[in-house]
Queue: 3 jobs
Job 1
Amino acid sequence: MDELTTVMQIANAVARAGGRTFMVGGCVRDMLLGMEVKDFDLEVYGLAADKLFSAVTQVCEVDQVGMSFGVMKVRHCDIDIAIPRRENKSGKGHKGFIIDTDPELDFASAAARRDFTVNAIMRDLLTGEIIDPHQGCRDLKNKILRHVSPAFSEDPLRVLRGMQFIGRLGFDIHPDTVKLASQLSQHELAGERIAAEWEKLLLKGTFIVKALNFLRDCRWVRFYPELEALINCPQNPLWHPEGDVWNHTLLVTQAAAEMRKNSPDDLIFMLAALCHDFGKPGCTVTGDDGRITSAGHDTLTAPALNFITSIWHRTDLPERVIPLISRHMHPWQLAESNASDKAFRKLALFVRRTDLLADLAEADIRGICMSDAAMSQRLAAVDRFRRRCRELEIAGQVPVPLVLGRDLIARGMTPGKEFKPLLDKCFEAQLEGVFTTRTGALEFLDELLCER
């Protein structure tokens, strides 16, 4: 049974019990925008918690994990059911609220606790009636994000929600909301909540430039010093006519968003794009001749590491992102210099995923406002890099040693300090292309042992 069928069954069960069910929040917004609705937030009026629970359990199983706040979740479906409620700030953090459920609460008061007007629209599931006490439909038509009320300030996470909504919807944000957001701080926010909003931007956003410029305009970029340092960091206009490192980074991340593959690697790729030039502020100098350079910026990866670990507590992210950043110019450089197979294989050992590295290099190129001819030349070099990696079978994997310790044992050797130098020599020969098959590897090993 799909979610929509379950939702309609819930609405009918609630109606039989004397209540009224509305779709609320993002599902109404997405429906009005003609987007696919994947999860449903329902708000039920006219029924106390016990009667609501009795009505709903006639048609589906629910978890009561949020019943103290007037919320229940339908099992095996992305459906939340809530009783209208008031929220009053009582302490720090996102849990510092006094919640008062009221099934008879008026629509305007119930919707006033929401973040943006476009998320404060209600739709009666059975009649289709739209209830819009805060003019969300007007803002939806005009593609504007506007806070519902001053209560917006009670949960600063709404600033980051605004960031990712802009990234996903492409809306403009009302100047009054920008001003209000600039007065808030993320210091009390839980790390996992911050990470979740960034992931929504990076994994779902298609308007990255607008989203991150909002972060700059409301001054929340101050909470991400590695990002803030990019603003007004100059670049050589001959190579970067798009302007400072901030502008370039936004364009690169935008290009990366357009290249996402809806794969488990998307977050790795998007973070690499966002952070790829974080080393430039620490390396950029202007010479006596006025020439701007940033030598070594690709290997200055500490700022990227700081940014990633300040948001995510996952060891796999820096382990996979940082090597990509530190070699992000190598694809076109290796291709243009017609580098050896060994150079390609050693690069694959270091970055692990040359396919992601090639995509990062392409996004970096597309984030430069160069001439069509220059861009075509650079992109052609990246395509040559991709072809070489496929030919060498290192596009999505690292070279695996063809000679192993068990091969030495099979030849009568006892494990000891001699093993590593021999295995290293065999692997080095493999990287140089002396052999490419298991048979060739064992022949090389036998010749090596005969020379001892």
Job 2
Amino acid sequence: MLVDGRVAIPTLTMMEAVVEHLTAASAGVQPPGADYGASRASVEALYRAGVPILAGTDANSTPGAPVTPPHGVSLHHELELLVDAGLSTLDALRAATSLPALHFGLHDRGSIEPGRRADLVLIDGDPLDDISATRNLQRVWCGGQERVRP
């Protein structure tokens, strides 16, 4: 992946939820092959190899879907799982901000600079010390417009 310039969007939140769902459906017994640890280990290996890791969750509210990670909160959980898989807190934050902007060609966002789109969140706490601080949203701006507090 590194040689080919690929990125990884592992969706650990979804993988964790799938394993939990399969285990619950099997009366609490983890079925063969249903191992979240394998997903975590693959992210750790990719990160150590230098493959860019981007945050994603596969959040959805599809009726009847066996697993439906909720929009919003699942991204905070994904950041926590990325840190648990070996990413630094700074690289986990980059996985949700500057790296997706870079790799998806969104040149007007991804960093705080004059002339860039002002998509910002104000949080209470320091996510570099504790990535779960991203859950403490105080204010949100989308395209420079403040939104109602989450």
Job 3
Amino acid sequence: MNEVIMGLYEIEEQAGEIMSYAGSLRQELLEHNQKQMEECAMELEGEMEGRLTILRSQLEEQTKEEIAELMKINQKQVEELNQLYHNNLKKFAQEIVEKIIEV
């Protein structure tokens, strides 16, 4: 009977050790998973920053190109208006004088 009780004590002691080991192992796994999640989050953040930098650069370049194109169009329109004005200056002056005389 003593042997059975001693055997049960040993089993209980071993079970306690196993549970303690399992608890520490579980804690290690949780810490490892947390560390991996943090590393993945940092890696993803870095990748997203890189992509955003590239996109920002592309948008800035595209904007500069569009502005340059608009400036060319505007300059051409100004030149056309100046040419129209110079070509029709006498006509416009005559029309103005006629309007003044009509009054």
